[in-house]
Amino acid sequence: MKKTTLITIVFLSIMMGTSCMKDAPANNSTHQQQTQSEAKEEATFVTLLPTTSFNSYSTYWNNFYPWGIDHNGSARMRTQNMSTSGGVLTMTAYPGTVSDKPSIHYFSGTCYAKQQVTVSASWPKWRVSGEFQCPSVKGTWPAFWLNGANQWPPESDIMEFKGSTTNWTNTYKNQNGQWSSIGTVISNPANWHTYTAYLTRIGTTNNVSIEYWIDGTNVSTQTGQNFVNEPLNLIIDLQMEGSSGTPGPSGNTVMRARNVTIQRSATL
Fold first, then answer.
1. Domain holding 115: CATH number?
2. pTM of the full predicted structure?
3. Do residues 180 and 51 both lie within one domain?
4. DSSP-assigned letters across all residues of 161-191
């Protein structure tokens, strides 16, 4: 009786050990497949504007707005108000006037990427991202945004501060032919924060879903109407006054940008 029991225990121990040895490679294989799948998912994005673009500024960026040196604030844009160093773009605004336009109260800087964003059937998903240090006092209007290259609308504002610590993510036009706007209060905008937008074609329509992310958190998802096949310019600017209020600061105002990138994917 004892001998039979001992044989049985030994037999069961061998079987259990064999079973464990067989399970280990299978679990490891599954883990490898998951890792490979995740890596493949990451690899579907093709980088068109590298995060190092400010190290070769003239290769990737144009000075001013696509339409000129002024916009709907009170700042005249100039190259001498912009500089790059160590992969960081710095824009500095300060009071100034020009004889040809009395509404100009500041000199500042702006630029737009030579690479455009165009959601299409071939490239239905895009990622636009950057890190910024922004002013947030009355009269300061920093922004990181997409604007129709051939016509307006469309427009997508990924980062926009208008004289406060509230960051606005906006889309024009939405499904109702109007603005979609969501405000998110940012703790100390003058520190580095990451602002990202994912533009994804909705089915076979001309509309896109735009996910707005701040520091890794999805703060809003909006619909952009008739965005598909419309080339968009990516603009960075430190505008002043206008929608951010008046009067603006009496001294220097600084905005910084780094790790700005444009990526696209042929798969959703």
1. 2.60.120.200
2. 0.84
3. yes
4. B-SSSEEEEEEES-TTSSEEEEEEE-S-TTS
161 and 257: one domain? yes
Task: Please tell me whether residues 50 and 39 are part of one structural domain.
Answer: no
Q: Structural domain of residue 30, as residue ranges?
A: 1-43
Domain co-membership, 167 together with 223: yes
State whether residue 19 is helix, strand or coil: helix
In a shared domain, residues 23 and 82: no
Q: Which residues contact 55 (CB under 8 A, 6 or more apart)?
A: 84, 87
Alpha-carbon span 58 to 56, nearest angstrom: 6
- Please check whether residues 133 and 39 belong to one and the same domain: no
25 pLDDT more than 50: no
Across the chain, mean pLDDT equals 88
DSSP annotation of 26 reads: H
Residue 256 buriedness (CB in 10 A; 0-12 / 13-18 / 19+): middle
Question: Dihedral of the CA atoms 244, 248, 254, 258 (nearest 10)?
Answer: 10
Total of domains in the chain: 2
Map tokens 């997409």 to a residue: 146
Closest CA to 221 of 165, 171, 146: 171
Specify the pLDDT at position 175: 79
Q: How far apart are CA 28 and CA 25, in angstroms?
A: 5
* Active-site annotation, residues: 155, 160
Q: For residue range 101-119, what is the model confidence (pLDDT) as tens digits?
A: 999 999 999 999 999 999 9
Tell me, yes or no, whether 70 and 202 share the same domain. yes
Same domain, 161 and 207: yes
Residue 83, both tokens: 């500089």
Decide: 55 and 49 in contact? Cβ < 8 Å.
no
Number of helices (H) and strands (E) in the chain: give both, helices first.
2, 17
